[in-house]
Every structure is written in C-alpha cells, then in structure tokens.
C-alpha cells in the first residue's frame, strides 16, 4: 500500500519513525515537504507562496504517486496550513486523509470536524498507523483500532490509546532518506534517544500526555546506548553527518545511561553533539560525562527569572542557586551554554520580567534565546489562564485554531504588562553583547508601538547565538533551494515534452 506524508518545511522525527515502520512491513512511502517556513522568523509566508506554489507541487505528487492514504502530522501553529493543504489533497485524490501529531492528539473532535480529515491518530502512531493501513488494504473494519478516531460509512467512532511502546530498540531506525531527498535533512543529524519526559511543566504538551497515558506504561522510555550508536554510525556512513543534535526532552535524565554512552560514543561516533538539559539534572558527574563524550553545546531552559512564576505557575521546581550552579559547572567544563527563557507569562509584571534579564547576566550564557509563551490547547497553563481571566473565549478559539500564540509573536494574555513583555522579548538579546544599553532597553520596552519594535527582531537573532542562528538559517535555505531547483527542472521537462509533441 502507498502512503504519502505531507510535511511543513522542517524535518519531522515523527514522520521519519512512521515511514520506517511502514517500510519495515512492506509498504511504500513517499514525502512531499513545503519549504515555505510560515511559522519561522526567516521569511514571510505570503511573499513566498506565489513563487513556490506548493499547492501545485502537492497536486503533482499525488497524481504521480497515487497514494492509498495521505498523512499529515502537525502542531497547533501549523493547523491552518494543514487544513488548507488537506483540502487540496481531498480535491485531488479519493484517498482517505489521516492527521497525527500533538494537535490532533489533543483536539481530535475539532480536527475531524473539518471535511478534509477522515481519521485522527492520537499519541504514538507506529502500531496504529500500520493497523489502519492493513485494514484499508484489505477493505476491513477500521473502527476498532486503538489510537484511531474517525468516520466510517457516516458513523463517528473513537478508540482509547494503547499502551506505550516500551522496547524502543525493537523499532527500526528513522527513515531520514525521505527528508534527505527533499533537501531538508543536511549534515546535522537530529536524533532522539528516548521518548517522554519525567517532568510535568504546566506549559508543555507532556502535561497532557501524562494524563492521556495514565496507567498505560512508563511515560519515559530510553533506547539502549548500543542502539543509538548503531543509528549514528549508519548516518556517518550514509549521509556523512558532521554533528549530532539530540532532541530528547531532557538528555541528562539518567546518569547510568550517560556513563555507558560516554564509554562508547567518543570511540565509535566521535562527532560533536548538542543536547537539551535541565538544571535539576546537572551534577558534577553528569557534566563530566558530557565533557568526556564530546558535548559541544547544551541548551538549558529556565523560562523565568522570577522564582514564583517559575515554580508555582510553570512547575519548573528549581531555584536560582540550582540554575547558577548548573551553569557554572557546564561552563567550567568548556561546554557551550545556551539559555532559553520565556516572556508573556501569567502575572508577569515588568519588574518580574526584568528578573529574567538579570539572571541572564548572572549566568553569562554563550547564547540567549527568548520566546513568547505559547498556549497550547489542553495544557495546564491554558486552563490556568482561562480560570484567571487572562484569556477570553474568542482568544481561546483562535489559539485552538493556530491563529494566535506563536513563540515569536506578541503576548496574548490580558494583563497590563503585555506591551512591555512583547518588547522586552525582542530587545533582551541585544544586551548579551551590548550590556551598556540596559537602561535604554528598559525605557523603550514600555512603548506601546509593539509592531515598530518587532520590526527589529530579525536584527536581534545574531545576538542570541550567531553560529546557531546561521546553522538554523542554512537548513530552510537549503530546502528552499533544493525545492526551487526541482520545481524548475520539472517545469522545463514539461515544456520540452510539450514541444516534442508539437
């Protein structure tokens, strides 16, 4: 059976995992990826839409591949794009369309309320998607498949989620080949060695998954070190990767695993790597493991400099001393440290927001990334914001439809400091290299001319982390160039074929 994945511009580890699982069971898979990064700060989507014409590219791919099932995976911010592209697919093909990813998992009824989606897969998708494909292929009953909701012969059905897949080593390595062909995956390998997060931050979708999968097995599962090493050795040989980016929610959760990893990774892989850490998990021993293994950069989220917001509202459970000690250990080991913070948080005043700026100076990180709070449907902080009158029904509706709440957008909570929080998010990165501007930045942040301040956002990117920003820009630019070249080659071939017929 042929399955076509439709993706929006960035490499998706979820799609890679599903593609590999389907291929392992004998099914044919292809991918079409929109290179227009509508949700990023690199380009303006409307400018590129006419030039790229992804709509026609999707139509061409469907007509040439003739899929039996079309699959979308998306987050809330990509929901408007997914609906629009699914409608194009529905008009082009009779193949059923399935939606997966965190947004369909949290809001299956809303997604199925669109005529363009026939099924929703909630939670982990390997086993559920395979069973759906098998049933469609044999024209069997699909209404019993766990994790799947949908419409069958006019009747709506919904099923509970199955237990988590505990043995991650039993799964095939992700299918990076499909993204390599699209020009999205380059020389930097994004890898995940575990699934799930042991923590329960209120703003994270994991807080929803913890509830959805209660009594369904351990939420955190990790592949063996040997399995991860073999995957990376394959990528070194096949794609000649030059660095590894571990995308685990908390790579440093589990000192024993890190100890074994440190013994094998330098000799068998030996590439510089990046990972996500949390101050709660940083000890002298853990940092020594990272250093010996060849860790180049860690990214550490602290979210807020105000202890009450950080712990009582965000549930980060870390004090200032823990943050500063973790940063000191990391920098002393010669590992590059990137700090991540958020603004636009509930009950955040200018004074509390400025505490976040102050802790930036105390940590003295090598990179400093600022985000705006993104409210995802189903998360505890979204419920908190509703109960405390920080968002109204219309704002909640727009958030649920992916129309509001982007990390690079404006503060959406209804509180007096929203203009200051929007502005300080844009201006704070400049202070990493230009600390003498602290007084000016604080004064300018009080202006209500938010859009004027946001115009300079692109200029703050190099002040966050110059080399990481350049690397991040390289990936969408590479995909864009690859897509454009392929499209125009196809256009030239069509014209030559047309001329030959004449």
Features:
502 residues, alpha/beta, Rossmann fold, TIM Barrel, seven-stranded mixed β-sheet, six-stranded parallel β-sheet, 21 helices, 15 strands, 47% helix, globular
Write the layout of secondary structure elements.
Elements: E1 2-8, H1 13-24, E2 28-34, H2 45-52, H3 54-65, E3 69-73, H4 79-92, E4 97-100, H5 102-106, H6 108-112, E5 119-121, H7 126-137, E6 148-152, E7 155-158, H8 177-181, E8 188-191, E9 194-195, H9 206-212, E10 221-222, H10 225-239, E11 243-246, H11 255-268, E12 273-277, H12 284-293, E13 295-303, H13 307-313, H14 320-332, E14 336-343, H15 350-363, E15 367-372, H16 380-387, H17 393-400, H18 418-427, H19 438-444, H20 450-454, H21 457-501
Parallel strand pairs: 1-2, 1-3, 3-4, 4-5, 8-11, 11-12, 12-13, 13-14, 14-15
Antiparallel strand pairs: 5-6, 6-7, 9-10
Can you offer a commentary on this structure?
The chain is α/β, with parallel strands linked by helices. The chain is 47% helix and 15% strand. The chain has helices at 13-24, 45-52, 54-65, 79-92, 102-106, 108-112, 126-137, 177-181, 206-212, 225-239, 255-268, 284-293, 307-313, 320-332, 350-363, 380-387, 393-400, 418-427, 438-444, 450-454, 457-501, and strands at residues 2-8, 28-34, 69-73, 97-100, 119-121, 148-152, 155-158, 188-191, 194-195, 221-222, 243-246, 273-277, 295-303, 336-343, 367-372. Strands 2-1-3-4-5-6-7 form a 7-stranded mixed β-sheet, sandwiched between helices. The chain has a 6-stranded parallel β-sheet with strand order 8-11-12-13-14-15. Strand 1, helix 1 and strand 2 form a beta-alpha-beta unit. It starts with a strand and ends with a helix.
